[in-house]
User: What shape does this take?
Amino acid sequence: MKKLFKTTIIIVSEYDPTCSVEIDELARDAMQGESYCIEQSTVQISCDELDGDGVREFFQCDGEDE
Assistant: This one.
């Protein structure tokens, strides 16, 4: 079985990140103190827990012994 990890990060900011802000900008703001990271957690998952064919294809999960 392929080892995959799902990471959830919650960042609170004073601006609306839906206005064309990239993920790396949010992370950088949290690291520099412009925003605040209130949660970061990681769990191991299997391919069959992935949603969407694009994600399964990206990790080459099809036909894998799970």
Remarks:
- The two ends are 5 Å apart (CA to CA).
